[in-house]
Records
---
Amino acid sequence: MNEASLRRVLVEIFRLAYVRRLVDLFGGNASARLSDDEVLITPTSMPKILIKPQSIVKMRLDGTVVSGGKPSSEWRMHVSIYRVRDDVKFILHTHPPNILALTQAGYRIDLSLSEATSYIGEVAEVPYLKPGSAELADAVGRALSRGNVTAVILRNHGLVTVGSTPYEALNRAEVLEDLAYITLMTKLLGR
């Protein structure tokens, strides 16, 4: 995809994540690899439904903003992932309520409930670390450095999913959120 197409698809994916209730109005972020050294990332402090293709920030993997406004406060995490995984083309960071509730209660998502493993791969987890921090970026980068990991649960914070397409990253977030809901309901019903 060219840059204009990537900008449009980032806007579309993020709106779908908002509609699906994976992010709130100001929460979450998404990015796309533009080249070996450049990425496109959603801006900070902008209502997700108002993001337009021209709102997307272009930056280098060294953190330098090439064009656009201020990148998401989680830009370090995105850059860290792109540095360790050449196969990752898209990253979606969401705050799915069922995943947060499940992990807060001390449970893990039951991946055996469906064909989820064919969509997901391996799910890693990192402890709570301050959002936007270098420590969080390093922890998520390490978790995703294993090539079979496609999702990382950030305890008391959210979820990061990666993919070779934006739809793959979004689908992984949706599937995991649905499985978290099913797991919660199963625990609630005592099964």
Note: The chain has a mean pLDDT of 93.
---
Amino acid sequence: MQMDLHHTGMYVLCRITGMKSEYAEIAAYASQQVDDATYGHALKFENGGAFRQTRTSEKLLSSKNLDVNEALETWLPFHFLPNNLDIENAESQICRTNSKVLKLLLENIRESAASPIGLYRLGIGLHCFADTYTHQDFKGFFDQYNMVTLLSGIEEKDKIKKQIDDTVERILNNHFPILAVGHGEVLSNPDIPYVKWSYSRGTDIYVIENLRERFIVALEDIYSFLTEFVKSTPYVQSGIEPKPFDFYKEKFFYVLQYKGNAKERHANWLELIRNNYFEFEDHDEIDRNLDYDPRLWFRNAVDVIKIPLWRKYLSQMINNCDFYRTRPGFHTSHWAKYMHAAAEHQFTVLHKILPVDTVYFYLQPVCK
């Protein structure tokens, strides 16, 4: 999914299940921040302290995408959750909906609801939950299982991606899909709500209608989880009794059919929320002014110290970090709490839910 669902879609689900707008705003921001927190370097503060960021996603063209070590830190725990705990079974590493691993993660999130980072854990978990629907049937690292062929879809390989593929193929004298991390070989087609697309894996052909088969199903399942989460978490409750999901179903169908890129679809959701299209009984100023700036939490927590260019490069070469200044309230800021929540989510998935030896994935050879 993209920012239209991860941010505004999750915000709406939080609100219609009875969550106060101030808490829904935090959970929804944390949900989208999973795609935007692409920095993993340490922050070196002018007072001599340091802070380790937790990267929750990789930049699209980063070479780190091909590194299984990096994938185990980002793609697998945050975007392509394995479906089971059996490391001996390669099938267990495929992302599936309603999996054993997901159920254990959601249980952990419910248990963490009252902690200072509970809402941030919720937002990160909602992102992961939603991605199990659109990322299903792919693995969260570079693997031959992801080497599929896109047959149809709204998004096709652009010239740059095709040139990379063709260049690698010429060098190796063999087809070697460079985008075989997650659903890279089928591009963004799984993440666009109104798209019908198809792909082949070996002799098997899959035809998927995103809207009815995945997006509506995802929203309904997440709605059910959030209803229970809000009911068991008194401090987030608005006092509004949630209506059945069917009350909103046609509204969701209407919004998800809106044609446009991710930013345009997100803007459409924002406009509908501001005008109370979803009929929040306690529609308020937060609803009317909802927005998303991917660096807002960071800027509110940290000031970047401007240093000479030569010193910056020297600093990066020696310390792998830039220089920063903490702003007042840094340790209780949204950004610091998000970073702590991301680290806890990552550790929970990799070292509490999955077996310890999950980090030693058996990777089938990608070329013979």
Note: The first strand starts at residue 42 and ends at 45.
---
Amino acid sequence: MTGKKPQISFGEMERAGLSEKIANRLLTLIREKQLRPGDRLPPERELALMMKVSRPSLREALRALQLMNIIENRQGSGNYVTSLEPSRLVEHLDIVFALDDSTYHDLFQARRILETGIAETAALHITDDEVALMEKSVERAGELIGDPDAFLEADMELHTMIVNAARNRILPAFMQTINKISILSRRRTGEDIEVRRRTVKHHREIVAALKERDPQKAGRAMMRHLGHVEKKMKDITAPGKKRR
């Protein structure tokens, strides 16, 4: 390691599923912030001895973490923990949020800022055909309440329709990033069937406000929806709650 740091106990590994266990141990050290962005791992030979594993098993685990953009190999220098920037880890968002649940607060703040304004703008530009498609989307979501994965797709579909109805070429690019980052939070809150039921109710209210071409009402309905989901997310991530 660079600099003077407390000795890290990398732990000894059992043989069954060894590479996966090695990777999980390193992820745990990252979550516990014993390993931080930019830290250099011990050389492979030394790390294998510390964990009492074979070098091939260690290399397999490190390759997996490299594919996840959690570990990077610098030629001639060794293996390092990456910057762990959310944009680099977008395909493995469980790691981003495992590092710090407060990230969810930033996510919902961003969604409130963007999506409330988007709903207000969409109310000024939406067409009758778009309203009809949104109404069908909400009804389809109601029929999918018992299927969390299918419901998630329907949820994302409606929010995308609202963005498109705002008639702004820049907003979809922002929302594409937000949607990628919000998939994990949507999955976690969507595990609760009551949240899914409430979401359908809120979506109906949003679409009704859009149909009335009422920007303030649409913005309030979107804010109410996001506020409810954020409250559920806070309940899930409250101290003492176990991750699933």
Note: The first helix runs from residue 18 to 31.
---
Amino acid sequence: MDVKELNKIAKIMVAPKKGILAADESTGTIKKRLDTINVESTEDNRRNWRQLLFQTKSISDYISGVILYDETLRQNTSDGISMVDLLSSKGILSGIKVDKSTHDLALSKGEVLTEGLDGLRERLTEYRELGAKFTKWRAVININDNLPTEFAINVNSILLSIYASLSQESGLVPIVEPEVLMDGDHSIEQCAEATEKTLLKVFEDLVEANVHLSGIVLKPNMVLSGKDAQNRASTEEVAKYTVEVLKNTVPADVPGIAFLSGGQEDQESIDNLNSINIVGFKENVPWELSYSYGRGLQGAPLKIWGGEHAKVSDAQKEFERRGIAVSLARQGKY
């Protein structure tokens, strides 16, 4: 493990004006996406959709890295070029989702843990050889009047720290993703409390696991009201609470924070990112405030494409439009 190299990669991932594209939908999740446009989820169709995104001419202007699924990391484009080489030719890093999704936490009501540590060390070695430069593991924290419990936070945090240490051991930069969900009717204050507790525990465990914080990227939720809350917090409140929680929890060694969109509406995720960066610049925070969006970048282009080759160019134009908008928001200039 080369700590300087990990830091170099992490800094590229959160480079100014750019963010990370989350294109790591599992086979089941991508099927749901394709079902919405009445396209069968075959390997060819999954490849065609993802290569449409990756072949967009301007993609390197607003994307620094792409999180891939196992299938995509191994795939070639229809022209016979590996997806990794296609991205690399544009100066974009390839990453890989390595967790095996969430499962019910035993004897718990409404909480989950993320599985995937079995055989991870061997998988990481293979992924590095296939060209991956970074990894991703998502932990999920739920909120209601009784949740999250300390046990759920602790268990998910420990799993994140073990994953991160294994990734760095293999020379891969871990994206550490503790997501406090926006599902429910909770207040922004409840979200702030749960997010702060979670992040404090995550960084405590990362340090105990000897993870080099200069060689990670944090992928947290923004601090939001629940999507079913009667009076949802304003963009300005989201920015204030989010930056405050980060200042209370995230060490300055961390190169950057790549926010997930987490079920926000497309425009909402742009507006909130813009406001967060405005506040971040004013308060001179020590980290890059970037993005790692999936649906927020892909949803509109997917509808335009609809599985039709003739619509590829139009879909790419929409992907570019959304990429430019998010890049401006990432600079606080939207």
Note: The mean pLDDT is 97.
